[in-house]
């Protein structure tokens, strides 16, 4: 046992750390699912469906890029 009463072992500290993005991961996940459903519903061909999956993955990056472009950052 350690000589300090309230000391944590490295394993205890790792358990208390948050792994993942928290709320932002949930928001991104919901937005991804929503955009995936939208793009797949509007796909007329298999190729358009595959393109919709790719668009659903990358639309947040494009959105941030366009916002920064608009704000001239």
Short description:
This protein is an all-alpha fold.
Can you walk me through this structure?
This protein has a domain at 22-70. The mean pLDDT is 79. It has helices spanning 10-16, 23-41, 46-70. 0% of the residues are buried. It contains three helices and no strands. Helix 2 packs across helix 3. The longest helix is centred in the C-terminal third of the chain and has 25 residues, at 46-70. It is flat, with a radius of gyration of 21 Å. The protein has 73 residues and is mainly alpha-helical.
What structural keywords apply?
73 residues, mainly alpha, 3 helices
Determine Rg (CA atoms, Å).
21 Å
Label the overall shape.
Answer: flat
Strand tally is 0
By secondary-structure content and strand pairing, the structural class works out as: mainly alpha
Between the first and last Cα atoms, what is the distance in angstroms? 55 Å
Helix content: 55-70%
Instruction: Note the run of SSEs as H and E.
Output: HHH
Average pLDDT metric: 79
Counting DSSP H or I runs of 4 or more residues, the number of helices is: 3
Low confidence ranges: none
Task: Describe the main β-sheet briefly.
Answer: none
β-strand percent reads under 5%
